[in-house]
Specification:
The protein is mostly helical. It has 6 helices and no strands.
């Protein structure tokens, strides 16, 4: 006889399967290019190596990508991207704040408020870009019925 799974375990298993499928859609070279586009100017004059913060940037890009892919289901069912972004604004804000704290801690950015504010804007744009990327690829998978 088969094993019994609770509803939570089955839902978690299904979520992990979907995330594994979505991770096939993301490229590590794309992530590294966006890291250079968004954060190269903040760390050019610093003695810290880019490899020290690159790993965290990759983790946060993957998290934002998966968050967008998770919420793409609502776009498939007719909501606009703006409505879906509003729906997950809390999770996205938490992710952005965590990323900003990570960049402040490991990036050793100065205490200059102007630099910190521009870093915060860069972090928000970075997370939003990867959220949108996950959203569009997830919506595409739903339309092709590949979920």
């Amino acid at each position: 006889m088969g094993t019994l799974l609770s509803f939570k375990e089955k839902r978690r298993e299904k979520q992990l399967t979907y995330e594994r499928k979505m991770l096939r859609e993301i490229s590590l070279t794309e992530i590294k290019k966006t890291i250079l586009n968004y954060f190269n100017e903040f760390f050019q004059s610093r003695t810290i190596s880019k490899a020290a913060i690159e790993e965290g940037c990759i983790d946060f890009a993957v998290e934002a990508f998966l968050l967008g892919a998770k919420f793409s289901r609502f776009g498939y069912y007719g909501e606009s991207m703006q409505m879906v972004a509003y729906r997950c604004r809390h999770e996205e804000k938490l992710l952005t704040d965590d990323f900003f704290d990570y960049m402040l801690h490991w990036g050793k950015v100065n205490d200059d408020p102007m630099i910190n504010e521009s870093l915060m804007i860069a972090c928000e744009c970075y997370i939003q870009q990867w959220w949108k990327e996950g959203y569009t690829k997830g919506e595409k998978r739903y339309k092709l019925r590949l979920q």
